[in-house]
Amino acid sequence: MPKPPPKDASDLIPPRPTLPNVRAAAKRCQACHLWKCGTQTVFGEGAPKAQLMFIGEQPGDAEDLAGHPFVGPAGKLLDRALEEAGIDRAVVYVTNVVKHFKWEPRGKRRIHKKPNAGEIAACRPWLDTEIELVKPRVIVCLGATAAQTLLGRQFKVTAHRGEFVPSPLAPVVLATVHPSSILRAPDEETRRLEMKRFTDDLREVARALRK
Ligand code: URA
Ligand code: SF4
Predict the structure, then answer these.
(1) Exposed site from 57, 114, 137, 202, fewest CB < 10 Å?
(2) Run of H or E including 46
(3) What residues contact 206, with CB distance under 8 A and at least 6 apart?
(4) Please, which residues bridge with residue 53 across strands?
């Protein structure tokens, strides 16, 4: 009988997990079909004992090609907001709920597709292990996918952005919009306003880190 496909990535987590050995194991992950869709696994990166962890949805086109999280347009926007909020990139770890890029072709472009519940569940052990190993004091969920994965299916980012949510994941946990939603703003004025709200959320994060 052929072996059934694994239900999630948990069998791949090394018995004595460390960030380097978990990252290496994730390279070979085939726990869901997305390994065929993306170019490579894009694991989280940053300070190994980062006080602050950002969790996005999945790597985008640029991240898929580079093999690093948040290096494309959304990552650049995040970098700018961090700088404005006075948060040093050296205390930050960035990762995603899903580690492979899910996309569909549109002309010559690869258009991002939302991961589904099965893909999110399959990939979850990688994220849980990253949180356990980094043990951040503050976790920021970027956008609805990360927020609903970590804070519950009913969580509404629009209603509760920037609020500290009690959670066993870390002492301070909150959600805000995804930086790519700011890039999609319909006009310059909205983009400027949304960028300011995002930076204000990060200033609250900076304040929590100083406590
Ligand atoms: N969007 C994400 O959610 N994650 C990335 O790494 C890049 C863009
Ligand atoms: Fe494994 Fe996650 Fe990639 Fe699916 S998306 S193959 S679970 S690393």
Answers:
(1) 114
(2) strand 45-46
(3) 85, 86, 87
(4) 93, 139
Residue 103 CA: distances (Å) to CA of 26, 77, 100, 160:
20, 22, 10, 29
The per-residue pLDDT of the chain, averaged, comes to 96
pLDDT in tens, the chain (211 residues): 776 667 899 999 999 999 999 999 999 999 999 999 999 999 999 999 999 999 999 999 999 999 999 999 999 999 999 999 999 988 999 999 999 999 999 999 999 999 999 999 999 999 999 999 999 999 999 999 999 999 999 999 999 999 999 999 999 999 999 999 999 999 999 999 999 999 999 999 999 999 8
Cα separation, 182 vs 193, in Å, equals 9
**Which structure tokens are listed for 116?**
């589904």
What is the number of the ligand closest to the CA of 65?
1
- Domain extents in the chain: 9-210
CA 12 to chain centre: 20
H/E element, 93: strand 92-96
Which is the closest atom of ligand 1 to the Cα of 94? 6
Handedness of CA 64, 119, 145, 47 (dihedral sign): negative
**Residue among 58, 79, 130, 184 to mutate when testing ligand 1 (max atoms within 8 A of CB):** 58
Say if residues 191 and 182 touch (Cβ distance below 8 Å): yes
